[in-house]
Amino acid sequence: MAGNEELGNIVRKKHFDAGRALLICISVLFIGSMLVLPLGTVIYNALRNGWKVLFSAWRAPYTISALKVTLYVALVSLCVNTVFGIAAAWCLTKYDFRGKQILLSMIDIPLSCSPVIVALGYIMMFGRMGWAAPMVDWIIQLPYSINGVILATIFVTFPFVVREIVPVLNAIGREEETAAAQMGAGGAAIFLKITMPNMKWALLSGMSMCTARALGEFGAVFALARSRGETFTLPLEVDALYMTGRKDSVAMAFAAAFLLILLDVTILAVKNIAEYITKKKKVDEAFE
Amino acid sequence: MNDYKESKRLIPGFSLTLGITISMLSVIVIIPLLSIFRYALKIAPVDFLNIILQQNIRRAFWTSIVQSLIAAGINSLFGTIIAWVLVRYTFRFKRFFDCLIDIPLAMPTAVAGITLSKLYSDQGWLGRLLGAFGIHVPYTKAGLTIALIFVGIPFVVRVIQPVLQGLNSQYEEAAQLLGANKITVFRKIIFPEIRAAVFTGFSLAFARGLGEYGSVIYISGNSDKNGTKVISYVIMQKLNAGAIDYEGASAIALVLLVLSFFILLVTNLIQIRNNKRNY
Questions:
Q1: Claim to verify: residue B18 and residue B95 sit in the same structural domain
Q2: B155 within some domain
Q3: Quick check: A28 contacting B, CB < 8 Å?
Q4: How far is it, in rounded angstroms, from Cα B271 to Cα B238?
Q5: Does B136 lie in the same domain as B19?
Q6: What is the pLDDT of residue A287?
Q7: Which pLDDT band holds residue A11 (cuts at 50, 70, 90)?
Q8: Distance, CA of B126 to chain centre
């Protein structure tokens, strides 16, 4: 495949030079103006008052509290989604059963569901007038407790781990697991010794996607978190600071936004490294 | 196929994993959404229609649908070009540009919202530039569309990229050698192959745009009169303490949900028909 691509490039270079230059120009301009400039704006607005202001904004009590809440929420939803992701991917790739396609489509629902609807759904279920409220009143009090924030975050990050693992497990097939089962290995041994090593990088990549998204969820959480300094996550703190409209608090909003982006970029870097390793492994195996 | 049927019995853990999957899916995703259905369907049909057909709500639906369609269209066009450039050409810093596509994923929607509205404001870099030409972006439909383009672009590029990568270039070369010009090659050979992916990217971006909240509320101005109020903002207003209106919120949410399910269904059908599903 790689050889083919190179050959294609050589052939194309001779014939398509003007078109190539034009298309590259369009892409670079689009990426530059639509994506790089916004990122630059955050960094510029966070840093233009100097490091001192940035750090003091990060040390503000509300920001620290929001950071703690954000990390806690992201961690809990990461754990829940990892368990779900592994179970669902195992079930969807190792067996054939009726309704598998439907199950797959249902797992994808959160991707195309408005965040505001998520919040409404939980209010309808667990809220004061929700039908399930009497059953869970002792643990989930919507919309004033952190549990609602956690639920909403789990919802929006629900498909990420599954979506990363399933293609990898499907590509590997089930022969190894079947053979191990025929030789008498138990489920836990098969999972830990065969499946896990095969999918560990894909799992890491899915987990980082999930965390990155969990850190930044805004709409769904906005309707469920009501008290600043207690259940506010970083994106909500950014909103609160920005909406006051005062110059210094807008600057603080960008400082908090910058912190959020730094976290996200670190996590996405992990994802890219994991993906790079997966790809490299594939190429290595193809050569073997 | 026969092997697989047997392996259902062989690999242990079927009922355990299926149980976890279905119960978690139900509690987290299905039941909350059904709760909205349950509440919305209890509203008398006349009242339901009265809520949905209010002028400001019709307008908000219209704004959301039209602006997401425009943004998804623009994203499909540029997304295809970018994916093509990133897959087929080699140039300096290509890998770096590839990473830049993920910027919207690294920028939470609220951050994207305040950033775009800063960038296009009169003091912002682009706002000043456009202001010199008399173009004003914040609090207009254009601002709304720009925000939707920003959040949608990675979906389109990342869906088309792998399909282009898997494309065998020998047919194009054959066509070229037989004398087809580049437009014919694209129209007859490349586009039919990536059509399904482009459509998937389009509908993902469209579905995402339809329910978008955080990135659009700051730049659009949420004005009913200018037609920049999106439907998710209307729902959120009805959930705000002080003006709580659960009936209205769930009626609108029901319509929006049905709309997104419809998009999801069409996308899935097309993917299954094309047999290009990733998993």
A1: no
A2: yes
A3: yes
A4: 36
A5: no
A6: 65
A7: low
A8: 25
Q: Tell whether B32 and B53 lie within a shared domain.
A: no
Residue B29 sits in which domain range? Answer: 1-42
Question: Any CB–CB contact under 8 A between A130 and chain B?
Answer: yes
Q: CB count, 10 Å around CB of A7?
A: 13
pLDDT for res B150 = 96
pLDDT of residue A45: 93
**Digit-coded pLDDT (tens) for A56-91:** 999 999 999 999 999 999 999 999 999 999 999 999
Shortest Cα distance, chain A CAs vs residue B32, angstroms: 4
Quick check: is B82 in a domain?
A: yes
| Structural domains counted in chain B | 2
List the one residue out of A103, A78, A92 whose CA is nearest residue A209.
Answer: A78
From chain A, the residues in CB contact with B102 under 8 A are 268
- B86 and B193 housed in the same domain: yes
Alpha carbons within 13 angstroms on the beta-carbon side of residue B176 total 16
| Three-class DSSP category at B55 | helix
SS3 percent helix, strand, coil of chain B, rounded to 5, is: 75, 0, 25
Most B CBs within 10 Å: which of A97, A112, A238, as the mutation test of the B interface? A112
Q: How confident is the model at residue A142 (pLDDT cuts 50, 70, 90)?
A: low
B30 lies in the same domain as B76: no
Task: Kindly state whether A239 is in contact with chain B, defined as any CB-CB distance less than 8 angstroms.
Answer: yes
Residue B114 corresponds to which amino acid?
I
Same domain membership, residue B127 and residue B36: no
Residue A272 scores a pLDDT above 60:
yes
* pLDDT tens readout for residues B192-248: 888 889 998 999 899 999 999 999 999 998 888 888 999 999 999 998 877 889 999
In the predicted structure, residue B278 carries a pLDDT above the cut 50: no
Q: Do residue B122 and residue B247 come from a single domain?
A: yes
d(CA B264, CA B266) in angstroms, rounded, equals 6
Contact B35 A8 (CB under 8 A): no
Residues on chain B touching A90 (C-beta within 8 angstroms): 13, 17
In a domain, B218, yes or no: yes
Which residue from A96, A158, A261 is facing B111, i.e. has the nearest CB?
A: A261
Alpha carbon distance B62, A169 (integer Å):
42
Give tens-digit pLDDT for A111-138. 889 999 999 999 888 887 788 877 776 6
- B279 belongs to a structural domain: no
Are residues B52 and B186 both part of a single domain? Answer: yes
Sequence-ordered list of residues with C-beta below 8 angstroms from that of A42, at least 6 positions apart, any chain = A254, A257, A258, A261, B107, B111, B115
